[in-house]
């Protein structure tokens, strides 16, 4: 399957189909991982939410101080946060898959909320066309491939 040549609408349909199928086969480990993320995550300045050194190191290694979406420094956008590209409300088994995690600013994270990735791309395309190339470039292609089975 070549995801590159698919239209956004087709990708939407595909992601929903795959997501629904997998959602009904959640395992005990999926739920464990889902909960593990709560202890692991790191939200800048919020030490109440259960941070670990491992997660802080990961954030440091995977961010350069600027949000990859809006390109603003995290400090002017309310800090940084770990976001699930494919939202864990819809893809709970990807809650601890590092390919699914990225560091974005809190403001962008709040705006993205629980949108399906393709809804999000669509949203950015409509509302922030200047940001669209950056968002499209980090489309979680290999994750979508991995969902096929
Ligand atoms: Zn941002």
Describe the structure.
It is built from seven helices and two strands, in the order αααββαααα. It is mainly α. Helix 1 runs antiparallel to helix 5. Bound molecules: zinc ion. Zinc ion (ZN) is lined by residues 67, 69-70, 72, 77, 104-105, 107-108. Zinc ion is lined by residues 67, 69-70, 72, 77, 104-105, 107-108.
The gross shape turns out to be globular
- Bound ligands, named by name, code or SMILES: zinc ion
**Strands ordered across the widest β-sheet:** 1-2
Give the fraction of residues assigned to helices: 40-55%
Mean pLDDT, as a whole number? 85
Structural class of the helices, strands and pairings?
mainly alpha
| Tally of alpha and pi helices | 7
Radius of gyration, in angstroms, nearest whole number: 15 Å
Low-pLDDT windows of residues: none
H and E string: HHHEEHHHH
**Biggest pleated-sheet summary:** 2 strands, antiparallel
Question: What proportion strand?
Answer: 5-15%
Number of beta strands = 2
Q: What's the N-to-C terminus distance?
A: 12 Å
